């Protein structure tokens, strides 16, 4: 296991999402959240040690790290009509399996 508390910030995020959905219970008001894990952005690359990055990648069940496009696809789903039955929920586990290790 790489970081057992890597998503500890997600619980307040989930609570906010849930409570906001309860305050806006009208049709057409969808409140969703997305809790991504480690995302390799251009801004992160200069600051991450290559050995640490390799360790991070090997510690995930899918042996990869998230890319910005991965997050964009999750956001796209949550904003689409396909998510019309979802409100007050966070897309948790959106982290190549880190949550479950």
Automatic annotation (TrEMBL):
**InterPro entries under this entry?**
NAD(P)-bd_dom_sf, SDR_fam
UniProt superkingdom: Eukaryota
* Pfam families from the UniProt entry: adh_short_C2 (PF13561)
State the protein's name. Uncharacterized protein
């Amino acid at each position: 296991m790489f970081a057992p508390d890597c998503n500890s910030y997600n619980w307040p995020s989930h609570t906010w999402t849930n409570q906001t959905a309860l305050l806006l219970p009208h049709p057409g008001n969808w409140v969703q959240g997305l809790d991504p894990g480690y995302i390799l952005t251009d801004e992160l690359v200069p600051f991450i040690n290559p050995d640490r990055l390799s360790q991070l990648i090997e510690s995930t069940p899918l042996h990869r790290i998230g890319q910005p496009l991965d997050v964009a696809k999750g956001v796209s789903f949550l904003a689409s009509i396909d998510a019309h039955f979802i409100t007050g929920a966070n897309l948790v586990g959106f982290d190549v399996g880190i949550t479950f290790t």
